[in-house]
Automatic annotation (TrEMBL):
Carbohydrate kinase FGGY N-terminal domain: residues covered: 7-249
Name the record gives this protein: Rhamnulokinase
One BP term from GO: rhamnose catabolic process
Keywords, in A-Z order: ATP-binding, Disulfide bond, Kinase, Nucleotide-binding, Rhamnose metabolism, Transferase
Molecular functions (GO terms): ATP binding; glycerol kinase activity; rhamnulokinase activity
Domain of life: Bacteria
Residue stretches making up the Carbohydrate kinase FGGY C-terminal domain: 257-448
One GO location term (cellular component): cytosol
Family label: Belongs to the FGGY kinase family.
Lineage: Bacteria, Bacillati, Actinomycetota, Actinomycetes, Micrococcales
Length: 493
């Protein structure tokens, strides 16, 4: 049986990828995961050290497999791609990729930001880009690559979703939501900043302007898929930064905040205009572009990366790990016994996470977790505390009330984390959908093809997300006082 008019979402996360099919049925988007595949980075020795790369050809193979599987039994009418942000590939004059893209967790950007800030003051960069400082932002990755043979040879720079789209269609563009994470985009003009590009050329000798493709907005039909064995359908520019698609897939209305929780947690609110104040920069908030001219005002929080790394290390050491059982055991641990700053850069790199968490606790004067359950509880308590801090700051800086939190993505399955977030913030938490990113991706495609009717704006997309996901949503009400959370926050200060 063939399902009519199927849209395909390619959603790549930091640890896995998936191809998700969607079709409209009675005013809702019905989704099905067609194919999942791992995303495993590879370290390669270059110039005397190991450099961490994305295995982008393996990811592309996973995409092709998923699209072919879907096309065998569905009437595929469009395709959209979203991935994580900041990382890029370089193409030569023939359009060939100049090496696998470097992973944002690679150490090549260590200390680079300080050098860039001597030429482009942090205040000026924030005024133009509205971008949260992260040591791996694209601008710092490019500064780290200044003078390299690869960058000198390059004739085109494409962010990851745009690179994959180029391989599918032959058309090179920069989708706006992902481009806004580079540190090269003027957030108000929603286009490349001539001022920043000129300053980089003068200070670091990098003439990046000719490398950058035209910026397109979500909903643009980029080109037609032109790969043997794949359906010849339009590739639609969705919110190609996965968080941008995840926010479209939030089933909310009114004064809601969102937490898109996976390897990273993106914690923020949806605005019509950027917040570019010095207080906002000092709070390390980012103004990333969203769908329909919106701004995703948020802060990156380290997310479930800490838990994922601990579980991986325990498993590699030969220990039997049942995550559900481990979470149940952690519920019995004394609440807020140990909290750490999950956003400490000490937690950014892979490897040795349990030891680094124990060291951070000791240095902060916190009780050091001795068991796996204590370690997990420390991570989840600390995450909920980080969410509380981020949401309070976002509300204050944007002068926006928050009445409910929507926690979407893989973390919405973690009942303890959802409950702790409600307790920490004093706000109800609505968990789900798990596949919010794919849902937002699919809804933008359907609207681009005219299948949602006339006049469906961003609020309408949120309502469609609610209609599509209402059966999998769980509501967590805050309970108990916040005095213990106040005390834990004071300890962290």
């Amino acid at each position: 049986m063939t399902v009519n008019r199927t849209y395909l979402s390619v959603d790549l996360g930091a640890s896995s990828g998936r191809v998700v099919a969607g079709h409209l049925d009675d005013g809702r988007m019905v989704t099905e995961v067609i194919h999942r595949f791992d995303n495993v980075p590879v370290a390669v020795r270059e110039g005397g050290r190991e450099v961490l790369h994305w295995n982008v050809l393996r990811l592309y193979e996973g995409i092709l497999t998923g699209v072919r599987l879907a096309a065998r039994r569905r009437n595929v009418v469009s395709l959209g791609i979203d991935t994580w942000a900041v990382d890029y590939g370089l193409l030569d004059a023939d359009g060939a990729l100049l090496g696998n893209p470097v992973h944002y967790r690679d150490s090549r950007t260590d200390g680079v930001a300080a050098e860039v800030f001597t030429h482009l003051p942090a205040e000026m960069l924030y005024e133009r880009t509205g971008l949260q400082y992260q040591p791996f932002n694209t601008i710092f990755q490019l500064a780290a690559a200044a003078g390299s043979a690869q960058l000198a040879t390059a004739r085109r720079l494409l962010l990851l979703p745009d690179l994959l789209g180029y391989w599918l269609t032959g058309v090179a563009v920069a989708e706006a939501t992902n481009a806004s994470t580079t540190g090269l985009l003027d957030v108000a003009a929603r286009g490349w900043s001539a001022e920043i590009l000129l300053a980089l050329r003068g200070a670091l000798g990098m003439d990046l302007g000719p490398l950058l493709p035209p910026v397109v907005e979500p909903g643009t039909q980029i080109g037609t898929v032109d790969v043997a064995g794949l359906p010849e359908v339009p590739l639609v520019a969705v919110g190609s930064h996965d968080t941008a698609s995840a926010v479209v897939g939030v089933p909310g209305d009114g004064d809601f905040a969102y937490i898109s929780c996976g390897t990273w947690s993106l914690v923020g609110i949806e605005l019509a205009e950027p917040v570019l104040s010095e207080a906002s920069r000092d709070g390390n908030f980012t103004n990333e572009l969203g769908v329909d001219g919106s701004v995703r005002y948020l802060r990156n929080v380290m997310g479930l990366w800490l838990l994922q790394e601990c579980v991986r290390e325990w498993a590699e050491a030969g220990e039997e790990i049942d995550l559900a059982e481990l979470l149940a055991q952690s519920e019995e641990v004394t609440a807020l016994r140990c909290v750490v700053d999950v956003d400490d850069s000490a937690f950014l790199a892979p490897g040795g996470m349990p030891e680094r968490l124990a060291q951070a606790a000791a240095e902060a004067g916190e009780p050091v977790p001795r068991t796996r359950a204590e370690m997990v509880r420390a991570i989840l308590d600390s995450l909920a505390l980080a969410y509380r801090r981020a949401l309070r700051a976002a509300s204050d800086l944007a002068e926006r009330e928050i009445s409910v939190i929507h926690l979407v993505g893989g973390g919405s399955r973690n009942e303890l984390l959802c409950r702790l977030t409600a307790e920490a913030t004093g706000l109800p938490v609505i968990a789900g959908p798990v596949e919010s990113t794919a849902l937002g991706n699919l809804l933008v495609q359907a609207r681009s093809l005219g299948d949602l009717g006339e006049g469906v704006d961003l609020t309408g997309l949120h309502r469609l997300a609610l209609a599509s996901a209402h059966q999998e949503l769980t509501r967590y009400e805050p309970r108990g006082g916040r005095a213990d959370w106040d005390a834990a926050e004071a300890r962290l200060r």
